[in-house]
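Reading a protein record of the kind used here takes only a little practice. To see the layout at work, look at the sequence and tokens printed below.
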Amino acid sequence: MNSLLTALITKRIVATVSALLVVAIGCGAGIWQLGRAETKMALAANLQARQQMPILNANKGPWSLEEARERRMIARGQYIPEAAIWLDNRPRPIPPVGSNNAQSGFYLMMPLKLEGGGEVLWVNRGWAPRNNENRETLPPVQTSNTVVSVEGIVFAHPGKVYELGGGKNAVEKDKPRIEQNFDLATESKLHSWAQAPFILREVEVGSDDGLLREWPPLTSGVDRHYAYAFQWFALAFAGFVFWLVTGLRQYKRQGFANGDQG
């Protein structure tokens, strides 16, 4: 047994250290992927629990972000379409069945002036596809010019994408804009109005306005994390098996060379 251990480890220091690194990296990455999956599951469970709470009414605020985060909310007011922001490079939330390609488009962020007060609530009204021939051509969307009721889920922001450069060009506050990201504080300073410290992501209510609101669940991607974890654990196992098999072969060759043939 001692001679076997010597042949596997002592005489193969480089191979042993390499195998240990592969096993450590594989197991560590696999455990991290499992942790990511568990985190998403916990977030989804928390979101579902908060959505079971009573629906908030934006018109009976003001509400803080801590009070309203991830809860259902209804709001009644009138849209301000001239201040709309089109968030670019947003893939379609749920691709069509049978499609593996993410279709690029916009999220439409539009301020809603709440009825009975002067506060503004930014609403993520949904997703619309980009014009592939001219990205400056905005999708046709219908917006009511009367008071509307909106229902959705409260979030801190609509999600961020990578943006090159930190500088912002001068903007005209009374014209729709195409932006990469959305910042509540920036919009509050630009328009000099009182606004809620969160955004409302509108849910599908059957309105035919040219926007899609099929939002993916927070648990989307969990299966992918499990698959990645399996691949990392498989890599660690393969590294160990390769180290063991090559060591045993070397041990047997040395035994034959020394005349130990049984």
Notes: The chain has a mean pLDDT of 84. The two ends are 16 Å apart (CA to CA).
